[in-house]
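Listing 4. Sequential folding, example run.
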Amino acid sequence: MPQATIFIAEDELIEAEDIRTTLEKQGYPVAGIARSGESVLELLKVIKPDLVLMDIHLAGALDGIDTAEKIRNLYNIPVIFLTAHADDTTLARAKITEPYGYVLKPFDERELHSAIEMALYKHRMEE
């Protein structure tokens, strides 16, 4: 079975490259990287990843939560939030998008791998 492709939505380029390195080390091809919610949505029109790793703070007018909601409605691609934000207000907003996971930065590589595998499995079972 081919490995799932993952799209990274992260406004900090150095952090995005660290995430890419981690994913590739774990065997996941990275389908693309975008810094803004608007770019994510444009790229997902042509790139069809199996999962999106989404930072909550993104460049542009759409934050990660707004972008995740649009992804859920338009593309039915599972989203895992990978973020440093864990306050109650942010969590309450994020929950509404029905994410497949919520991983705090700095992340543990095994924790990220487990979250990805569980999200992919859950999404397959729902289809």
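-- end of first protein; second protein begins --
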Amino acid sequence: MILFPAIDLKDGQCVRLKLGEMDQATVFNDDPAAQARLFEAQGFEYLHIVDLNGAFEGRPVNATAVEAILAAITIPAQLGGGIRDLRTIESWLGKGIRRVILGTIAVRDPGLVREACAAFPGRVAVGIDAKGGKVAVEGWAETSELTAVALARRFEDAGVAAIIYTDIERDGILKGLNLPATAELARAVSIPVIASGGLASMDDIKALTAPEYAMLEGAISGRALYDGRIDTKEALALLKGGALLKGGA
């Protein structure tokens, strides 16, 4: 199972939001590339990047910061936020992003997701951000009537590489992952699912190792990593199938 460290970009800085609110941003590093290098040095194998401004504006905004991150690391990275057309997808994949994440456009134009999956096999993921089980769009500013499971099922045969499922009501507040809802989604489709939103402590990491969550591809961690609530070595060892290190949490 993969633990993805998150770099959320707002105004060129590495931040974390609370409940998806842009005015509730805490800056953790004003040098995102340095933060990315640190994550790689700590042993993480796959980076999760979100262009927060882009998610709200519907176009790439923090491109300079993303490009600096790509120049600083050798591990793969996935990117979401403001990616709404094939040209932008092709551009980011050409610049070195391993996998793009389509969120709002997956609700607005499912056909584009299918087209992108056909054009770039294995390199297109769908981000499903839910509030009370209903899908949110436009940087979480709007909530639709579509359920997360219904949206996921739309892409069952599209060739989507992964689904990133975020529980907005837990994001950035260290409330704990909503693993039951994530597992329900994972059981409903054959597409690999990644848990996101609320990962708070080593207890969440341990919970991910339970047999009922073995179908998950991984989990994304943000604030808990920045706050030091997670022991990186312990977490990576656990999710690779190892035991807790001596003296660990």
